[in-house]
6-phosphogluconolactonase
Amino acid sequence: MSSSIPLSIQSYSTVEELSVALADLFVTLSVDAIQTRGRFTVGLSGGSLPKILAADLVKRVDAVEWEKLTVFFCDERLVPLDHEDSNYRLCREELFSKVPIPEEQIHKINPDLLENAEEVAEDYKDQLIHVFAHVNSAKFPVFDLLLLGIGPDGHTCSLFPGHQTLEDTIDWVIPEENSPKPPPRRITFTLPTLNHAHNVCFVATGEGKQDILKRIIDENDQKIPSALVQPVHGNLFWFLDDKASAKLTLREKK
């Protein structure tokens, strides 16, 4: 990885210990962001991440000023909000239903636009503009924290190896209509949106992630989407369990 990026690679013996550390990071960054900017803007991903995040965070609800939290999704599947493939539904079940975050501060795709992926992406960009444009002098939204997962092929959000979505340097959020992983139709943050965040945290667990993590972290393989996530002015965290990090030479065991 680039030595110019503030980088932290931490490995934990168990997923439970990782969950505690991730909740610690979330709480600490929320306090700092609210003190500095008056709010805490977060981008969430799906997969196993919401459950890992919520496992310890829901035990300390009083540590977060939830009314000052604004949530977006780093990518979303173009399905109804109550569909089993919806990242919103997953995050609601694991986290939102257990904490006092105002529903209007959770930014969802418009289910009335599902037939047109371009319109869904444009509407989601409008929501981003509404939240970020009046306080943001950068060309892209600047999130306080983006929480990302990683697939066995190295994809993150809905940015897949070899897809043209990786080449977009202008847009904030774009459609992906040919995902190799079902469902095929999605929207996703672009690499520039990811790379303008104050803090980006990847979370990966399990033996199935060993080889791809070695290619990303030890070998800096630029063909892999997750390796292209390198915040311009922010911090990059990798929170791993020992099963996932077993082949890495660069890691701090906890």
